[in-house]
Design brief:
Length: about 400
């Protein structure tokens, strides 16, 4: 049994490494033009510390948005005065929207819903984005081009966690989340997902799927959207080459809570994917344990541990190379820590597995300054509000 588990763990690592190498081989430039009127919906809350940088990043886009809707919960939200100030630096029209308090949906979804109500009939493409990303100048064009050409109804990018401060939490989130971002998107409906940080949807598809009504009882905007898209057989795609930087400075505790919340959403909307993630990470952890036991019993079996460690380290090295070739290179100080985490794979795997397991309880979800009670994918209730948080 120990030998079998070790072989399975090696297989998982080998497949992970081959996926990254194949991504490198297939790396190519893609079309970025988008001849369409684009409206961007940007929900913000709390300090919105990087909002000024985000406006500058949007100013630098090769394809300019037709209008940006910045949506906040209330005028008492600290994000409101920052949004007022930042809007004055935009080179395109900006409209501020005060959404009001959510009751039976995520506050983010309420903010998005209020912005959708203000989008006019001249809009061809609606883009949903998060406030914590750092989009490069080709971001909007790359995201919107497949929708503008009629190839897809909905397109999303991949979040790319960047370690903005040398903290263990930030490194662990990067090691875990990058691996997930680089996985190929599975075809079966139960596995189809989108990332809410960067989604482009044709206005016609938004009307057809009743995007506004969909958000009325949603906790996760992207998972609810992907689920409805699959049900309606809309063309949903992900741009493999669109890795969108998301700076991360989290300490260990907030980092673990972030990963757990992501998997809570998965548990609610895509339970089969949650189970698949739990099974794969559990098998690899068991394989590492088996390899260590074999090495303790037979000194020659230390080669099994070395093989697992080597595959993990190589995976992190080539992940760094892929990022470098896409213009997202990490400093070598970050790359060395990431490779060390690959060699000592049980460390990020334990962090990852504990968050997945804890997400099995998804009846209560804490997100930002709000705690939600969840009885099902469309049965959400705001339970408590605290003071605004970053």
């Amino acid at each position: 049994m120990a030998h079998f588990l070790w072989i399975v763990a090696c297989g998982i690592n080998a497949i992970s490494l081959s996926i990254i190498l194949m991504r490198l081989v297939r790396l190519r430039r893609v079309k970025t033009a988008a001849n369409a009127s684009i409206s961007i919906v940007l929900p913000v809350t709390g300090s919105a510390a990087r909002l000024d940088e985000l406006i500058e990043a949007l100013n630098a886009q090769a394809v300019q948005p037709g209008r940006l809707f910045i949506s906040v919960e209330s005028e008492s939200d600290p994000a409101f005065p920052r949004a007022v100030a930042a809007a004055g630096h935009a080179r395109f029209p900006v409209e501020l929207v005060v959404a009001g308090h959510a009751l039976a949906q995520a506050q983010k979804c309420r903010n998005q819903q209020a912005a959708l109500e203000r989008i006019g009939p001249e809009t061809d493409i609606i883009v949903l984005m998060d406030a914590d990303i750092q989009p490069g100048p080709q971001w909007l064009g790359m995201l919107a081009a497949p929708v503008a050409s009629g190839s897809f109804d909905i397109v999303s990018g991949h979040r790319w966690q960047r370690v903005a401060r040398q903290r263990l939490g930030a490194h662990l989130v990067a090691a875990v989340d990058r691996s997930v971002s680089l996985l190929p998107r599975l075809r079966p409906g139960f596995a189809r997902v989108a990332w809410g940080g960067s989604i482009a949807i044709s206005a016609a598809a938004a009307r057809r799927m009743d995007l506004h009504g969909l958000f009325q009882h949603a906790l996760s905007d992207d998972l609810a959207l992907a689920r409805r898209a699959v049900e309606m057989e809309l063309r949903l795609g992900t741009r493999a080459s669109l890795l969108v930087p998301s700076p991360n400075e989290q300490r260990l505790g907030p980092a673990w809570s972030f990963v757990r919340r992501q998997y809570q959403m998965c548990r609610i909307y895509r339970p089969a994917l949650w189970g698949l993630a739990f099974g794969i990470v559990s098998l690899r952890m068991a394989g590492w344990g088996a390899a260590v036991l074999l090495a303790l019993a037979d000194g020659m079996a230390v080669l099994a541990v070395c093989l697992l460690a080597g595959l993990g380290g190589l995976k992190q090295y080539w992940t760094g190379e892929l990022a470098r070739r896409l213009g997202l290179a990490d400093p070598w100080s970050v790359r060395l820590v990431q490779m060390a985490l690959g060699v000592c794979q049980p460390v990020p795997d334990l962090f990852h597995l504990s968050a997945i397991a804890a997400a099995g309880w998804a009846r209560v979800v804490r997100w930002g300054h709000i705690t939600y009670r969840v009885a099902g994918p469309a049965r959400i209730q705001v339970h408590a509000r605290r003071s605004y948080s970053d």
